[in-house]
Design a protein that fits this description.
heterodimer; A: alpha/beta; 7-stranded mixed sheet; 4-stranded antiparallel sheet; 11 strands; B: mainly alpha; MetI-like fold
Chain lengths: 270, 294
């Protein structure tokens, strides 16, 4: 495969979650993390999963990522059932999970070295391409501990993008950052998503963040973990989290989250 | 990027001196320091100096002659052989145990953690006696071993087994809290990036724990070479055959060969000093890499 081919964006996947259930034993209690959850995510769609902690949204993300298995039900990616982690679905975590013994570019090369058919020169060019995309090309030789929290998450994002996946699975990736950095990353992520169209599932407990980023916001309720409601966010992009329109969306979602569904602009999907 | 200024502030705060009101009077500080120094000199520096002074009392020639003795050479060889087997065995076991305990839930985990500590809790002499009871001539497997001409007790295998038992917790104990604190995110990240289980272990888990592992191995090695109690019970003190360095020191001392005894002891002392230096270096690197990863 030649370099321009390699850098050409892979087509985003269509994901289909079909009746997924998962139970855990936690300190002697049986927890129904997911109870017959079904969800369709279109090609290149940006979907946010919101809910209180313990509602199974991270579990669902891990199952889609292939890191955990469902007790029953299945997840299809472009019609194929998911059974294990795969290069087509990359995962990003709250802690960057970067490898501190490698420098910034080394972290990107880690996944590229595991991808067959690439020569050394190509791997370096691909790594540089994605570092440029997240605005960190000057830091390619930097050590992980020299980076700020926001920069670490940019590297983690670049590392996820480098193997050219079809899906990005993001588990509260901005939760540990300060507000200013986070707002900057909202802008960057939307920009990158429009440039490198991926199907994104984004887990968060921050309603406003979800309304800012998602095409759709899926509301989960805990014990047992179920989908309660979903909202379509019809605002144009790129969105600014500080606008009044966005605040209105987030207020009505928050109201639904608290159980008393009021609030005006609410386009319930389907 | 605005977040860059956030982190260094938290660590810098602890290095500031205490406010004046909460500081102790000068004489308190000096007295405490003096007490600590006298204690150190008396219990650590003096014995250390005594070992080398005694060893060198008849001059440098006599000191080095002690190591040319065939029995001394045999003791050095046996000690190195024992460490060369016990330390890698415990390193492999320690990594495997820490990995299982830190990364997977399973029944009997707390029992396993307790068992790993057993060699620290039990007296080494008893550890040695247990192996005599199992493998000795009158032990459980004694007659079977004699029938098949396998010698464990009063032979090299017994020494290696006893040493392995005594040094068993060092690596595992060092790694368990380290790997528990690290969690699974980096392994998960590697898995989604396309690494197989084996690749994840070699390219992520092992680099992540290398300083902790090295630290455990250094301590394990120091103990393996210096172990006296358990080895003494299973060795039988056969000169030139089942004598390790610590046992050889005792034998020479009991024969009133003080120069020889202290010369050999000084070897073990040097080993201790080298261990301390290495330990400090590794601790320093370890701390640096841990603060780097958070």
């Amino acid at each position: 495969m030649t370099l321009p081919d390699e850098l050409r964006n892979e087509e985003p996947s269509k994901l289909s979650v079909q009746g997924v259930s998962k139970r855990f034993r936690s300190r002697g209690h049986l927890v129904q993390a997911l109870d017959n959850v079904s969800l369709e995510v279109g090609e290149g769609e940006f979907v946010c999963l919101v809910g209180p902690s313990g509602c199974g949204k991270t579990t669902l993300l891990n199952i889609i990522g292939g890191l955990e298995h469902a007790d029953s039900g299945q997840v299809l990616a472009d019609g194929q059932p998911i059974t294990s982690p795969g290069r087509d679905r990359m995962m990003m975590f709250q802690e960057s999970a970067l490898f501190p013994w490698l420098d910034v570019r080394g972290n990107l090369l880690f996944g590229l070295k595991l991808k067959p058919g690439l020569r050394r020169k190509e791997r370096l060019e691909i790594a540089d391409f994605y570092l440029r995309l997240v605005g960190l090309e000057r830091f390619r030789k930097a050590h992980v501990h020299e980076l700020s929290g926001g920069m670490k998450q940019r590297v983690a994002l670049a590392r996820c993008l480098a193997p050219n996946p079809r899906v990005l699975l993001m588990d509260e990736p901005f939760a540990a950052l300060d507000a200013l950095t986070r707002e900057q990353l909202y802008g960057d992520l939307q920009h990158i998503w429009q440039e490198r169209k991926k199907t994104i599932i984004f887990v968060t407990h921050n309603v406003r963040e979800a309304a800012c980023l998602g095409d759709r916001v899926i509301l989960f309720s805990p014990n047992p973990g179920r989908i309660r409601e979903e909202f379509k966010v019809g605002l144009p992009r790129p969105r600014d989290i500080n606008t009044v329109e966005l605040a209105r969306y987030s207020t009505s979602i928050t109201a639904a989250l608290k159980g008393h569904a009021v609030g005006e602009p609410r386009e319930v999907a389907e | 990027m605005p977040a860059a200024v956030a982190s260094p502030l938290t660590t810098a705060g602890s290095r500031n001196p205490l406010p004046r009101a909460s500081r102790d009077a000068a004489w308190v500080r000096w007295t405490l320091t003096a007490v600590a120094l006298v204690f150190l000199a008396f219990f650590l520096a003096l014995p250390l100096a005594a070992v080398f002074a005694e060893g060198l009392r008849r001059g440098v020639a006599a000191y080095f002659a002690s190591f040319r003795d065939t029995d001394a050479l045999a003791a050095i060889r046996l000690t190195l052989l024992t460490a060369a087997i016990a330390v890698p065995a415990n390193a492999v076991f320690g990594v495997a145990a820490a990995w299982a305990i830190a990364k997977f839930p399973f029944r009997g985990k707390s029992l396993l953690i307790t068992l790993i500590d057993l060699p620290f809790a039990v007296s080494p002499v008893i550890a040695g006696l247990v192996y005599v009871l199992i493998f000795g001539a009158n032990g459980w497997f004694g007659s079977w071993l004699i029938d098949h001409d396998v010698r464990i007790i009063f032979a090299v295998p017994g020494i290696i087994i006893a040493t392995t038992f005594v040094t068993f917790p060092f690596v595992a104990r060092e790694l368990i809290p380290l790997m528990q604190a690290q969690g699974n995110d980096e392994e998960y990240a590697a898995a989604t990036l396309g690494a197989s289980g084996w690749q994840t272990f070699w390219r992520v888990t092992l680099p992540n724990i290398k300083w902790g592992l090295l630290y455990g191995i250094i301590l394990c090695n120091a103990r393996a070479m210096g172990e006296f109690g358990a080895v003494s019970v299973v060795s039988g003190h056969i000169r030139g055959e089942t004598d390790t360095l610590p046992l050889h020191v005792e034998i020479l001392y009991n024969e009133y060969n003080f120069v020889g005894s202290f010369a050999v002891a000084s070897l073990l002392t040097l080993l201790a000093l080298v261990t301390l230096v290495l330990k400090t270096i590794v601790e320093w690197r370890h701390a640096a890499s841990r603060s780097a990863s958070t």
